[in-house]
Amino acid sequence: MNTHLETAGISPRALEIADKVEAFVRAEVVPFERDPRLGAHGPSEELADELKALGRAAGVMTPHILEGGGHLTQRETAAVLIRSGLSPLGPLACHTCAPDEGNMFLLGKVGSPELKERFLGRMVDGSMRSAFFMTEPAEEGGAGSDPSMMQTTCRMDGNHWVINGRKTYITGADGAGMGIIMAKSGDGACMFLVDLPDPAIRIERVLDTIDSSMPGGHAVIAIDNLRVPADQMLGEAGEGFKYAQVRLAPARLSHCMRWLGACIRAHEIATDYANRRMAFGKPLVDHEGVGFMLAENRIDLKQAELMIYWCADVLDTGAPGTTESSMAKVAVSEALMRVADRCVQCMGGQGVTADTIVEQVFREIRAFRIYDGPTEVHKWSLAKKIKREWKAQAEA
Amino acid sequence: MNTHLETAGISPRALEIADKVEAFVRAEVVPFERDPRLGAHGPSEELADELKALGRAAGVMTPHILEGGGHLTQRETAAVLIRSGLSPLGPLACHTCAPDEGNMFLLGKVGSPELKERFLGRMVDGSMRSAFFMTEPAEEGGAGSDPSMMQTTCRMDGNHWVINGRKTYITGADGAGMGIIMAKSGDGACMFLVDLPDPAIRIERVLDTIDSSMPGGHAVIAIDNLRVPADQMLGEAGEGFKYAQVRLAPARLSHCMRWLGACIRAHEIATDYANRRMAFGKPLVDHEGVGFMLAENRIDLKQAELMIYWCADVLDTGAPGTTESSMAKVAVSEALMRVADRCVQCMGGQGVTADTIVEQVFREIRAFRIYDGPTEVHKWSLAKKIKREWKAQAEA
Amino acid sequence: MNTHLETAGISPRALEIADKVEAFVRAEVVPFERDPRLGAHGPSEELADELKALGRAAGVMTPHILEGGGHLTQRETAAVLIRSGLSPLGPLACHTCAPDEGNMFLLGKVGSPELKERFLGRMVDGSMRSAFFMTEPAEEGGAGSDPSMMQTTCRMDGNHWVINGRKTYITGADGAGMGIIMAKSGDGACMFLVDLPDPAIRIERVLDTIDSSMPGGHAVIAIDNLRVPADQMLGEAGEGFKYAQVRLAPARLSHCMRWLGACIRAHEIATDYANRRMAFGKPLVDHEGVGFMLAENRIDLKQAELMIYWCADVLDTGAPGTTESSMAKVAVSEALMRVADRCVQCMGGQGVTADTIVEQVFREIRAFRIYDGPTEVHKWSLAKKIKREWKAQAEA
Amino acid sequence: MNTHLETAGISPRALEIADKVEAFVRAEVVPFERDPRLGAHGPSEELADELKALGRAAGVMTPHILEGGGHLTQRETAAVLIRSGLSPLGPLACHTCAPDEGNMFLLGKVGSPELKERFLGRMVDGSMRSAFFMTEPAEEGGAGSDPSMMQTTCRMDGNHWVINGRKTYITGADGAGMGIIMAKSGDGACMFLVDLPDPAIRIERVLDTIDSSMPGGHAVIAIDNLRVPADQMLGEAGEGFKYAQVRLAPARLSHCMRWLGACIRAHEIATDYANRRMAFGKPLVDHEGVGFMLAENRIDLKQAELMIYWCADVLDTGAPGTTESSMAKVAVSEALMRVADRCVQCMGGQGVTADTIVEQVFREIRAFRIYDGPTEVHKWSLAKKIKREWKAQAEA
């Protein structure tokens, strides 16, 4: 067990789940970290199924969603998801991974009883993966960080909606059993739940990307006259951006949780290496150049953890937490990049090989600084907020 | 009131004091920030007395020590001391300043009833300032970050101790009414309480330093055959380093608290400037180059605050908190340096003038990265800790 | 002599002057570095005169301007000015300081023979100081980094120009014997040479600023119906910004040269300290935490030097060098800030005292990141340039 | 042609070669950048051969080695190798790649006429690849950054040497036609030239690493009773470390050259993207958050280039350049990491895909900060140098 993780202020029920998850990940998931079925586009479906079966058997499948459909608080969720992230494969085995975690959360918050009935159960029990269709190709001027640029359209045709457009960076689309699609109608943005695969949703290609932890990778998708029955709209027409916001802050934060876990593990590996490996007459850790890096890691990891719990507490008050999750996302992703980079550096040549997960964690975190809004977009919206607050105060 | 400071998790009694302190500092202390009696060696004694009189009248003198001698918890203390720091003069006016705050804390923890009776009351009511004599001149190989190098000696002579040596960087010694002196006997380090001034304790000079907030500045001292009655020893002979540790962690953390307050204020000033000043056709804040700096400040300030409360909670469990206060000291001082630097930069030419406190805060924080252990010394001891933990775990 | 400075590629005549300047600064100027006549607003006039007399006697007065009015190339100037900066007082003693160096350069380039006759000789021989009146107060929306915001006006009245406005941050105005004033006419910006002091040019106050090396400090000025004979206009009416550009790039670069010298010296002092001071059983330099900082300094100093020579070479081709001097200014000022900061840190408590120049150099460099265009303004104009170049290439 | 690269100070013959190389790489190599034969362990042998055939046909094969065996100066080599690096495949196509470039250089400097005759021709004409066997596995305490830890042994047996040991991170060993092996005899370190493959040199596995530009990848090797005829020793017995030094500085610098080229190209791609991609109503480049990153890239790239030429000039004087190449390696690799990171970030989601080389360059540069001595090892040796210089000066 990692003795540096916060336990004060975490509920007993969450700590119990968290401990179970940590024990499971360390004992049963870690041995798969060099499995040959891990590919450039993520673990194979077979491996994913095998890991989920282990999670199910260990009683840690979707552990943050309680029997009967209740959901841990965000603070409790943090305690659990951080531990599930101690291996890059952990979130998959425990089904706390993106984009499923966020999709389940959104459906739980916004979905009608009928839609929940039809989709949510299969998601929670891990029997299928899901995808979230939002980002669009840059080369066509589609929506990236600026959602107002969305080009995918939906229009009513009888009792169906007809959707057309292209999406990119759709994580896990290849192999998913359901998806949430965002498209623009005359009334504004809409969201739809669809079964997958569907012949009208064509995977053009799966991108080669720097990260490799997510089954199905990230796909470019063409949606060509996809007909969706009207009752598969999520919520109301025109409210798509509002729902995206509901999903956004907690999903963003859950990324922070999982990757914090991964970096804690990378730091353990680097620490072990630095204590065993000799150079110039003493273990690496006794060289301040290395020891200081480990010390800096400890500080960065603690700060990341504190930011996550702080933001979780804000979300637990029922506040939207847009600003706070932006702050947390920037602080955590940038801190974890520093941590991962130092772990690689401490390990020298060994750090850039796939012999340990350190190298993978470094690559994943690099992508994380862009996923769910690049650092710069969050700073931009924080600056806007600072201006609005100043104005309000200046007028008061 | 600054609406970004944490209030959740702070006790009502502490919040009440904190609000009173904030209101006092903003309304009554800030107007003195350009007082001509502010010199390079800190505020004059006259100004200091005037400010303390205001603090006394406002009922915020030594606000973290309760009637009857009780002390707020560290978490509560943080809420109060952060607000007292909203002006560089605030800690002086509220008597929450260094080194007095730490000296009172130490005496409260370790002092015999007799010593408390004789010294503590006068300290708590702000009627005299105190000094802590520990650091020694580098050019003679004296004790700096490495206390084992201490050269000041004390030896028994009848019922007195005789102390000889030189000290440097003794904050507030010039003008202090009492002091705590550290010296080495055959049994190890000892601490003594002495009345000041004393002819055997000669102020050789007051250093010109980059900071300027502390009355009396920082002095170089020669101690020449100082005779101290045996009953003025603090605690037991040979336990001096242990007592220094008792003082160290909370004193270090209280520095973080006060300077966080100062940087929050500097950020308010920079924010105001950036919203009013135009350049290239729009207010500075609308330039991402400036707006992003303010956004980064908000994140750094929040992280600093969270680290302080985290460490305070550890201390409130009764743990020594050596590691945690090292982590907090490094994280907070480095974050505040970034904040102060950005505030200067956002304000352009205006930022390097004394027209606002931003320039002073920048200088103070620069020194803070060295006071109470430079960043590197804390990283060094963290690295040692990491090694010890690894060893313990490897053997288990 | 500093053996790390480049000599390859420097002309023999420049190296000869440079060596003489270095020897002079080290032997004759350095002893004045703790002179009591050094004040918060810079050296007193008496001290300045004494230093200049020494420089004159040593044959290093305005050493980059040759007998007969010739000027060293920018590359040669760099070799000399870097050495003159080895003490913060060196540029004053050698009269290579700002704003005089830039004013002489501008007058040499743009001035009519009559104006040169009247003003330049007295500037070059160091018998008077000069000032450059450009920046305006922010609180009135005047010109700072954005010169288009200039509010000071000039209008013809008979054979005189009448100038009105306010200026701020006017270095050395207090005590100067002449000045160059920038003001806006109907035809655009104009520049005027004026004798100082003049009752119509009132020094409202000298600012308290973080830096303290320049005699006369930085003043706020009110210009009230100043009448200037028409023949004291520098060049043509409406060409003021063009002339400002002529002055800008080399003046900016000469700042880099002088402060590089100062940081080289600070690094020497820190190196000496780190080799003598013991901590935890060995000299500081043997602690990687300190030794690495010195190593990083060496790299930063070398890069700063190379950028200066690179930009100097561009200017020596006759190119305006606007982009290159922006790049050099950002690179050098930011690198020197890191160097100065590390020097302070290496020296611990000693680093924040005025016992060595390290503390002053740190403060000066902080201001340098804002003088002559803050880092952000240069990045902004570089980004514009990058866009223009892309466009030109895309269209080609 | 990239118009920002230095041409002043480069000889006409070098510029001519450099231009030819740049034209070749841009026109003929770039189209292969998404070739399916690029694998995780580098380009396939087939692809490598195809590229080298193109280079040969274009007259740019080993362009820094002249007809008749002469070698461009290091300054000239820089001009050429930077351009060859404009594609990650360029150094392969032009045969300026590691480890061949360094092996050819070493053999050219140290090899006997017989050894040159036997090996050098085939290396220069690109008909075979070579490997350099130095680094040893960490888990067995072998030589990494600290060469004194070398465990591979060689002993005389008749007129042969018998070599035993294990090596790791042996770039290009898989598929190489010859190798240089380092081993320890009773007299000290020795170097041997061997034909490859050889049954006594077993490739245990090719490591999965973060980089992927080098054919053959990086292998773990077991050397088991390899018998090498005595006349295949390079130079003298016991002089191995001296020869390693001969190779080291220029090889290290040539890494800087090639990767600078790659980062220049990545910056071109990011610039193009930032000018085309819209967000929030304007092209990315008009957002200071992006524009400033491109500006910082331009500065970093220029500084990297200047450091390379500076170090090249030192080597061209015949000096060993150990310190200078350490400084250049640290400065360039860290600067290029920042550049590559900013390129990724400017491109958002697109930046982490393999659709452009930006993602690969980021990965390669990450490894480069460790290859040929991690940053920390160079800082360590610089700190030692600083101490030695101080001592020499203090004693003088």
Model description:
The structure is a homotetramer of 396-residue chains. Chain A has helices spanning 12-29, 45-57, 74-84, 90-93, 100-110, 113-124, 240-276, 288-316, 322-346, 358-368, 375-395, and strands at residues 38-39, 42-43, 130-133, 153-157, 160-171, 178-185, 188-195, 201-207, 218-229, 278-279, 282-283. Chain A starts with 11 loop residues before the first helix and ends with a helix. The model of chain A has no long low-confidence stretch (mean pLDDT 96). In chain A, helix 7 (240-276) packs antiparallel against helix 8 and helix 7 (240-276) runs antiparallel to helix 10. Chain A folds into 3 domains: 12-124, Butyryl-Coa Dehydrogenase, subunit A, domain 1; 130-237, Beta Barrel (Butyryl-CoA Dehydrogenase, subunit A, domain 2); 241-390, Up-down Bundle (Butyryl-CoA Dehydrogenase, subunit A, domain 3), CATH 1.20.140. Chain A is globular. In chain A, the strands form 4 sheets. In chain A, strands 4-5-9-8 form a 4-stranded antiparallel beta sheet, with no helix packed on it. In chain A, strands 3-6-7 form a 3-stranded mixed beta sheet, with helices on one face. In chain A, strands 1-2 form a two-stranded antiparallel sheet. With 396 residues, chain A is an alpha+beta fold. Chain A is built from 11 helices and 11 strands. In chain A, 61% of the residues are buried. Helices cover 48% and strands 16% of the residues of chain A. Chains in contact: A-B, A-C, A-D, B-C, B-D, C-D. The interface between A and B is large, with 36 and 36 residues. Chains A, B, C, D: Keywords: FAD, Flavoprotein, Oxidoreductase. Chains A, B, C, D: One of its GO terms (molecular function) is flavin adenine dinucleotide binding. Chains A, B, C, D: Belongs to the acyl-CoA dehydrogenase family.
